[in-house]
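User: I want to check something. If I give you two sequences, will you return the structure for each one separately, not as a complex?

Assistant: Yes, each is folded on its own. Here is the first sequence with its structure:
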Amino acid sequence: MDSNNRVPNDWFIDPLLLGVAKAYSDPENNPLAWQADAVCAQTDPEAFFPEKGGSTRDAKRICQGCDVKQQCLEYALANDERFGIWGGLSERERRKLKKRA
């Protein structure tokens, strides 16, 4: 994350940009292929990384209509994402979910 931007530079990793051949055609071998269908990848990332105390409402509303919401949440939990809205949940909500599991 650069000092002028709250959004991490790697918030969205496009497998094709990483040079992963056939990244979108073989999701079994690419754990990030779901990102190609993520609604957030087509919207302003600022909504998904609000300032401390900022509203998460817009990001969560966008997540509600996303076809890959579950994959996103699973990714965030598996990779211990500590910032932003992932799978429709905030950092705090993800921590609570992990504690219950």
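And separately, the second sequence with its own structure:
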Amino acid sequence: MKQRYNVHTVWLLMVILTLSTYVVGESGQEGIYIVTFLLLTAMVKGGLIIRDFMELKDVSTIWKIIMYGWLSIVCIAIAVTYIVSI
């Protein structure tokens, strides 16, 4: 099986995403665009963790639905909660 990228590339991307969320958090900005950016970043990082670090890229479809579904439901719940609280 051919890999499109190695685990070091994924790790570096996760570090960059983590640092970007830290910078945004420390900047003190707020609003729907910031929350959207943070949630999308969390979804990308969660997807990378599920796919590469938990090594679930080659499992059955039901496990992918469960894991990515859980990630999506949590992020959507956070987004809805934020929008309702505005």
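Because they were folded independently, the notes below concern the second chain alone. The chain has a mean pLDDT of 92. Residues 29 and 35 are 10 Å apart (CA to CA).
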